[in-house]
Write a structure and sequence with these properties.
elongated; single chain; mainly alpha; 2 domains; Arc Repressor Mutant, subunit A; 63% helix; 5 helices; 124 residues; two-stranded antiparallel sheet
Length: 124
């Protein structure tokens, strides 16, 4: 958790996304304690209430849970849940618009697959 906060989106959303990313990267493991809101506030020089808002979003989603008097912990199954949510968002945000644009340009399925394969080859 040593990323820099930006002005692009709300800070509490960035805190939420950084914790999710750390779970996906296995930096934060299931059943492991996550930094407290005060630790996050100090690390990023933000208001503890802002950090708490980001953490509470993850609690509401079942990604984190609270052990009274000890802190917040990553829930069992959190990584899988984040992956499923992000795959759905990827489909909704990218695949649907890609297909709509391809259709409007008259790009065939075969052409689209060839483009994806070309992009994959360029990446390697």
């Amino acid at each position: 958790m040593n990323e820099i906060l930006t002005q692009e989106k709300s800070i509490y959303i960035q805190i939420k996304e950084m914790i999710e990313k750390d779970i996906l990267r296995n930096i934060l493991l299931e059943e492991e304690r996550v930094p407290s809101t005060n630790e996050l506030a100090k690390l990023y020089a933000i208001n503890p209430a802002t950090a708490a808002k980001g953490v509470n979003l993850l609690v509401d989603e079942g990604i984190l849970y609270k052990k009274r008097g000890i802190g917040m912990f990553v829930a069992t199954g959190a990584k899988k849940q984040i992956m499923e949510k992000r795959k759905k968002n990827f489909y909704d945000d990218y695949v649907k618009s890609l297909m709509a644009e391809a259709y409007s340009l008259g790009i065939t399925r075969q052409e689209l697959i060839a483009m994806i394969q070309e992009a994959e080859n360029e990446r390697e």
